[in-house]
């Protein structure tokens, strides 16, 4: 009969790799007596000494300990793969997903996505974080986030992306603006008016480059990292803005009417992407959530295939609240 456990082997391997019971305990977040007791049990089971204890200088392996260390690592690796394979072959998807989302996207899309996703996969705990892209790059690199959703930009090394959707940028005008009833608005016609800039990376450079690429200068009157502050200033006739994300209702938080219209010039689309660290092996939860989101955007036709910036039909809002663009 086997009288040792995988947990005991894990404790032994940690002590051997750290050459210290104390360091192993800190690494595994358990008490030192738990590590010592587990190693003693294994030594009693095999009737050999595995570690030599050096007072105030940690531990070292005996020859028997070196042999067991190699086999124990292999057994623990096999046990981990076995558990993962069983989970991934099961019909039940469960686990935790640490998801980061660009601050301008999250309030428009994530409530609806998470509501729909949880109905199908109630066993997945999605922990949502919001921030700018620099914060998300850092979080992916240090392992804080599993996945991130943001608009296409220059990526640091080691991050890979997958396209979710494509949106056309648009001009946001107060409802009383003389051009509010037009089919499209030319950037050239706005250069003498006050521009209200969504000032969060990479949106700042993305919008300013639209003017530069068309040989135009722009008068930035206000800037804010908040999508709703920008919309609110437009609604109060402080100027116009360029945006990509589009909330469902054309009203600001304080009840003012705004109008979003296509840009007449040829400008670069906003590409919404999933990102993850290249060296991280994707889990089943990551894969399922990624595929769900791609299907979700396709289902609700949130894409720039047409010039109308398609929105979720109002009939689709029953049961779960859906939302439109960035």
Give a verbal description of the structure.
By secondary structure, this protein is of the alpha/beta class. It has three domains: 6-89, Arc Repressor Mutant, subunit A; 95-165 and 270-317, 3-Layer(aba) Sandwich (D-Maltodextrin-Binding Protein, domain 2); 170-262, D-Maltodextrin-Binding Protein, domain 2 (3-Layer(aba) Sandwich). It is 38% helix and 21% strand. It is built from nine helices and twelve strands. It has helices at 6-18, 21-28, 32-46, 63-89, 106-120, 133-141, 203-213, 227-235, 284-299; strands spanning 51-54, 58-61, 95-102, 124-131, 147-151, 159-167, 170-174, 194-198, 219-224, 241-243, 258-262, 270-277. The strands form four sheets. Strands 4-3-5-12-6 form a five-stranded mixed β-sheet, with helices on both faces. A hairpin with a 3-residue loop joins strand 1 and strand 2. Helix 1 crosses helix 3 and helix 1 packs across helix 4 (63-89). It is elongated and about 90 Å long. 30% of the residues are buried. The model is unreliable at 304-326 (pLDDT under 50).
Tell me the β content.
15-25%
CATH superfamily of the largest domain: Periplasmic binding protein-like II
| Mean pLDDT over the residues | 84
What is Rg? 28 Å
The first-level CATH class of the largest domain is given as Alpha Beta
Order of helices and strands: HHHEEHEHEHEEEEHEHEEEH
CATH topology description of the largest domain:
D-Maltodextrin-Binding Protein, domain 2
Give the N-to-C terminal Cα separation: 61 Å
DSSP strand tally: 12
In DSSP terms (H or I, runs of 4 or more residues), the helix count works out at 9
What is the name of the CATH architecture of the largest domain? 3-Layer(aba) Sandwich
Helix/strand/pairing class, anyone?
Answer: alpha/beta
Main sheet summary: 5 strands, mixed
State the low-pLDDT regions, or none.
Answer: 304-326
Overall body shape: elongated
How many domains make up the 3D coordinates? 3
Strand order of the largest sheet: 4-3-5-12-6
């Amino acid at each position: 009969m086997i009288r040792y456990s995988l947990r005991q082997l894990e404790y032994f391997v940690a002590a051997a790799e750290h050459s210290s019971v104390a360091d192993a305990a800190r690494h595994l977040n358990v008490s030192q007596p738990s590590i010592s007791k587990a190693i003693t049990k294994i030594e009693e089971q095999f009737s050999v000494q595995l570690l030599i204890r050096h007072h105030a200088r940690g531990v070292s392996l005996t020859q028997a300990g070196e042999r067991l260390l190699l086999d124990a690592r292999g057994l623990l690796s096999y046990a981990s793969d076995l558990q993962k394979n069983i989970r991934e072959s099961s019909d039940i998807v469960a686990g935790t997903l640490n998801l980061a989302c660009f601050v301008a996207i999250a309030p428009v899309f994530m409530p609806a996505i998470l509501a729909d996703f949880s109905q199908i996969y109630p066993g997945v705990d999605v922990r949502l974080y919001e921030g700018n892209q620099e914060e998300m790059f850092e979080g992916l690199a240090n392992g804080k986030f599993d996945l991130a959703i943001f608009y296409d930009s220059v990526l640091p090394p080691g991050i890979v992306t997958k396209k979710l959707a494509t949106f056309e940028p648009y001009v946001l005008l107060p409802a009383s603006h003389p051009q509010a009833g037009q089919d499209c608005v030319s950037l050239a016609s706005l250069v003498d008016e006050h521009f209200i800039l969504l000032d969060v990376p990479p949106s700042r450079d993305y919008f300013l480059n639209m003017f530069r690429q068309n040989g135009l200068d722009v008068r930035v009157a206000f800037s804010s990292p908040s999508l709703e502050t920008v919309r609110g200033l437009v609604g109060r006739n402080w100027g116009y803005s360029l945006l990509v994300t589009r909330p469902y209702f054309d009203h600001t938080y304080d009840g003012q009417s705004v109008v979003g219209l296509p840009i007449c010039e040829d400008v670069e689309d906003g590409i919404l992407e999933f990102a993850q660290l290249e060296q991280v092996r994707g889990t089943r939860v990551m894969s399922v959530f990624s595929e769900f989101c791609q299907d979700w955007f396709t289902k609700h036709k949130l894409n720039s295939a047409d010039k109308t910036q398609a929105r979720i039909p109002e009939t689709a809002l029953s049961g779960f609240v859906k939302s439109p663009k960035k």
